[in-house]
Amino acid sequence: MHYDAIQKPQDPAKFVAELQRTHCEALDRFEAALANDTTGGVAIVKKNGEGWIKVSPRPKQEEPENLVAVKGEIERRWGTIDLLDILKYAEFDTDFIAEFTTVATHENLSRKVLRRRLLLVLFGLGTNMGIKRVAVTGKHGESEATLRRVRHLFVNRANMRAALVKLVNATFAARDEMWWGTGTACASDSRKFGAWSSNFMTEWHQRYRGPGVMISWHVERKSVCIYSQLKSCSASEVASMIEGVLRH
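User: That's the sequence. What structure does it adopt?
Assistant: Structure tokens below.
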């Protein structure tokens, strides 16, 4: 029944013969494309005395018309809000910057300057842009050295946890229970697990390297798994998160 469902023969000799045939046909097409220079950026190069297949990045594709229309309608209805502005407005509403106390004996920075530098540091850490890139981007007038000093003196585990507690509590206080329910905590994340190459979901993960699959969890109340998903490595984590919210 299972072999019929995946349309594979039960005889291993037939399975291997069919696999060899498809591989040979693919290699023949690849060889012909190399000879005619129609591979579209694929070439054979020498590396460590052996032949390697080199694949050049494909050019950027044109954006589909329907996606352009969706983006245009979203921008028409709600406009464009910068991510740094969202962080800034959240700080103005909750004052979570007050939780970041210095580890030094004293500090002469004004509250206004400290707020600006801490927001830039947290933005760089939270988006994985890094402090260096944040320092050279924008017209905020802060150098990399000043941001790194604030990072060293003010951002630590205890301060970060206290700020997150204040921000999360404010979020729970503001959200509508009719839509979100009365849950106290929910987190979603994906983790890569190694898998055999014969697994239909197995893919090569570009970031974590190696073949495997992704498991996405929605967890509530510290350790209770509410919903989980088996995903391929190229699946969107944002889509998994939204699906988990809808099925939570």
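Residues 12-36 form the longest helix (25 residues).
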